[in-house]
Amino acid sequence: MVIEVRRSVPLGVSEERALVAVPTPKPPPGTAFPPRRLNLRGVPVFELGLWCGTCPALFQRLSAPEAADLEASNERLNAGLGAIEDDVLETYGGVLPQSLYTALLVDVTPQLVTPGSAGDYFSHEQVATWGVDPVLGSPENPGGPYYRTFEAPIGRDQHLYEFMVPMVPPDWNDRRRVAAYAEWAGTTTPPTAVAYSLLDVIQPAMDVGDDYYEHWVLTHFLLDGHHKVQAAATAGRPVRLLSLVDERISIASSDDLAILIEARSKPREARP
What we know:
Layout: E1 2-11, E2 20-21, E3 37-40, E4 43-48, E5 59-61, H1 74-79, H2 86-93, E6 99-108, E7 111-113, H3 125-130, E8 146-155, E9 158-165, H4 175-184, E10 192-202, E11 214-224, H5 226-235, E12 239-246, H6 254-264
Parallel strand pairs: 9-11, 10-12
Antiparallel strand pairs: 1-6, 2-3, 3-4, 4-5, 6-12, 7-8, 8-9, 10-11
Helix pairs in contact: 4-5
């Protein structure tokens, strides 16, 4: 369920001052695409899919920070946002890299997934299109659990997949806080989590799999709300998410982002 959308909102500070960033270094001599990594407090936390647009999606864990939530606006988020609020955007603008952002306020019902399980995107939908990693002889491995939150067809040969990625594994969360949020869920406006998000529109250069189509991968990297999201997944209830989609770093055009908003308003539907 989409609550509100704002397009091309200017937010952020210089990359050197940002707590979250995906640096864009110049490629080393003789290489076409440098590594694409998400840094938290200057430390690489996730290896992402390459910039080429034909490589498979990835958010492989490289390290885990000592603290998961930034807790930039905790009291307001716990009460649940009824709309996108300027002061909340301003607060998170102080930790994000300077860019234009598509701000999405949505309700999601997260489902916890472990690598290799029946619900794992990397072992199933991705393999059906890209095949297994030719070097490892196995599917891509994100290196830890994550949440699936939504999917929907965009066109006959395009499908949207949405994931929520915690900065630390869910079993690191405080169980008492998770239990408290689980009891709270469903009684009021859902408490709000916040994420730095990327939309990657990707497709293999060649048809090598059993199901060849364009994958639209919307990945939310949690900045605040780890306990809320785990509680929602445990209780099977929705949590509200303020997603800040970085338009500069996403592998997607402005038109793609407009299509994303339309697709995100559809009912959840798996690829046949």
